[in-house]
Amino acid sequence: MKELLKSLDKLNKIYDQFELLNFRAHKVLPLTFNKEDSKELLRQNKRLYFSYSYLNKEKIRLTNHILSQTVNLKDPLFKQNKMLHPKLIDKALKLKNIDQSHDKDTLEIPNRNRKINKLKQLIAMIQDEDIGLCQNYLTQMNVLIYQSKPHLFDERQKPYQSQELLQNIDFRTKIMQFDYDRYLFEEFTPEDFLDYLIFKKVQRHTTYIRSYDAKELIPEASDSGFSGIAYEIEIDGIRECYVTFKGTEADMDYTQRSRSKRLEKFLLEGFKDWNYNVNAILVGNDTENRQMFAARDFIKYIQDNIQDKCALYGLGHSLGGHFVQTLQLTDDCFKAGYTLNSAPINLKQVKLIQPDLFDTDTWDKLLKLTADKTTNMSPNNEIKRLLPREYPEIINESFEQDLTQVFYEIPSTIWLGKKLEYNLNNWKYPFKNHLASYLSNDEIYSYQHFFEQLFAFLQDSTTGPQLMRNTLGFIRARVKILHEDIEKPETSDFFYDYSNYLYQSGIFLDQPQQLTEKFNQEPNTMWKSSRLEWPFIKSLNMDMMELSVYFHIISGVKYFLNRKPNVID
Questions:
Q1: CA dihedral 234, 236, 240, 246 (to 10 degrees)
Q2: How far is CA 203 from CA 1, 164, 200, in A?
Q3: Cα–chain-centroid distance for residue 564?
Q4: What is the pTM assigned to this prediction?
Q5: Which residue from 157, 365, 439, 495 could staple onto 443, CB 3.0 to 4.6 Å apart?
Q6: Coil, helix or strand for 344?
Q7: 145 φ, ψ (degrees, to nearest 5)
Q8: Domain DUF6792, which positions (predicted)?
Q9: CA distances from 456 to 172, 221, 267, 446, 459 (A)
Q10: Radius of gyration of the chain, Cα coordinates, nearest whole angstrom
Q11: Could you tell me the CA-to-CA distances from 15 to 122, 130, 135 in Å, in that order?
Q12: Domain definitions of the chain by residue range
């Protein structure tokens, strides 16, 4: 059994290297956005393909070895627990099946732009490895063995120290990722997973462990789309409770066999989160605050049910980080907190849900200080002085050019505690998160208003097809208005500024054109406006869209965190 554990650990490290290779490949993807930079790809591709070839050979060897070890495994415990051996074999077979079904020719390389397409092929091949799924099967095998034979795992002598898990970056990322992946652990309880994860990270056994799922405990959670899990643990007499808040990314539930039902669930769950993102965080209105109410109810339930002298810690990725920050401001509920690529606090929302947090004068000052983010003045120090305290226990880490950082450029938004931003040196990544360099304050308000109207239009959508149909209908209506008003200076300026921002951020490859006087004198027709819009719109850069999402999710952003951060004051 110990030899099998060693093999599982080796294969898991190979998949860790695959994940790192995926990051390295995505890191050089911006070189494909223009011909001059793409010359560097030849050298990069050779290195990346060499690494992939080695890892792939090791993966195949270890996968076969693990299957052989598992099938031939003999242990007296199998007589007592007759399902243990079949379960281990089942996981090993699943790993083997994934390896065999892996399509190494997922992308044919056209003769044109071979350097660019070769890199894209490599990324497709790595993603086809199903790294996350395979690592989860490896974890499940470890969990099964740990539950049955914990003495096989070496325990350290030094007792557990307070916040030791919170300070462990791998624990933080894995426990936050679990909320996205838990559909893969249907045959296990969250306690099973966490018990093994804790021992893996600190080499000490828990004496108590209990999980709390918001969707099971808080009626409003499922209806609103709120997702959170709390894990109450005790190690060496130290009691801690880690509350994780899930981000916006909706899960594709592959346990649902019907493809249409699976897609519908995915769309509707995503809509609930984005409905909250837009109305509560982007705009700060009173249309959709149910997720925050559910979060507060969840924390209250946990506080009422955990053991005495149990420290409460909050962790959140993306939207989840917004909950950590906002709850700490409104309820001061966490002894410490950690966020990753977090969305901000919206002061307008806070004023709606807890108006007595500040007096009228303080509210006016805070909202005035954050009303216009396009000025060169940085009011962060003034804002901190107006808050109840400094909140040094909240650590916000993010990729400096993450897409959620745009939210911090929106009026009425702030962050709480320490803000650490990470990036790479001498790296060309085009996404611009500072809106003020491209848009006026009026244009930013217009941006908010557009999405507020969109989600108001979608409120009655109850099915996936209806949601998609209504979204397209809204966009068509707005495009029609654009066609009718394109000759107006204000409309054309707005269109150019938005388009230029998207172009500078790499979202579109063609530079937008400003209207000329001759163009304005032409009769207003659909063809006229299309000449302005279509060449730009058709240059949508899907690679950049995918890249911005990749660097936002946990598996992408975590590789920035070993760099020296830029501390934001």
A1: -70
A2: 19, 11, 6
A3: 21
A4: 0.91
A5: 439
A6: coil
A7: -70, -40
A8: 209-356
A9: 36, 21, 17, 15, 5
A10: 26
A11: 15, 9, 7
A12: 1-153, 163-431+564-569, 441-505+507-540
Separation between Cα atoms, residue 391 and residue 324, nearest integer Å: 12
Cα end-to-end distance, the chain, whole Å? 52
How far is 463 from 360, CA to CA, in rounded Å?
42
For the sheet containing 208-213, what is the strand order?
Answer: 208-213, 228-235, 238-245, 311-317, 336-340, 394-399, 418-422, 566-568
Q: In sequence order, which ranges of 203-258 are alpha helices (DSSP H)?
A: 214-217, 219-224
Within its chain, how far is the Cα of 169 from the centroid? 16
Give the residue among 9, 315, 25, 39 at the shortest CA–CA distance from 169: 315
Query: Can you give the pLDDT at residue 41?
Result: 84
Nearest in space to 493 (alpha carbons), one of 535, 419, 443: 443
* 428-452: burial string, b at 16+ Cβ within 10 Å, e else: ebbbbbebeebbeeebbbebbeeeb
**pLDDT averaged per 10 residues in sequence order, the chain, 569 residues:** 93 96 94 80 89 95 95 86 92 93 59 76 92 94 93 93 96 93 86 95 96 94 93 97 88 62 79 92 93 96 96 97 98 97 97 96 96 83 94 96 93 95 92 90 90 91 88 86 77 86 90 57 48 64 92 95 91
The per-residue pLDDT for 20 is 96
Q: How many CA atoms lie within 13 A of 542 on its CB side?
A: 2
